[in-house]
Amino acid sequence: MTKSTATLSAIRGGEEPTAEEVAARIERRLGDAQREISEAFAELEILARMAARPTQPAVQRRLLTAAEAAEVLGIGESTVHGLRLAGELASVKIGTARRFPVEAIDDYIARLSQKGA
Fold first, then answer.
1. Contact at 8 Å (CB) between 111 and 103?
2. Which residue ranges make up each domain of the chain?
3. pLDDT tens-digit map of 72-92
């Protein structure tokens, strides 16, 4: 006796299930499986729609801290401040915070490239 037959036999008090009972049980299980598959496909469609939505482009920061400017330039933070004090690298103040415009960093790199050419 197989495990599923033993389970059915236990339910019926030790008697073997009829073919109709086994067929009905199989049909119920197949129906349950079909519903599960349908639900999974519906969820996949939702995911596909979500993935197809255009994403917002990330906001590009235009003002960098001294540490960020140093990282972009591949130099130390104190060197960034030294360049600022020497008038080589433009910066702006917002309240007490000092920021370096991305354009100022690009201009500085362009000047370096012209000197090296």
1. no
2. 3-52, 63-116
3. 999 999 999 999 999 999 999
Q: Which amino acid is at 9?
A: S
Collapsing DSSP to helix, strand or coil, 72 comes out as helix
81 Cβ neighbours under 8 A, 6+ residues apart: 66
Give the separation between CA 99 and CA 82, rounded to whole angstroms.
14
pTM, two decimals, is 0.52
Q: What percent of the chain has pLDDT over 90?
A: 65
> Which H helix or E strand runs over 64?
strand 63-64
Question: Which pair of tokens denotes residue 22?
Answer: 């086994």
CA 3 to chain centre: 45
Q: Are 104 and 89 in contact (CB under 8 A)?
A: yes
For 112, residues 6+ apart whose C-beta sits below 8 A from its C-beta are none
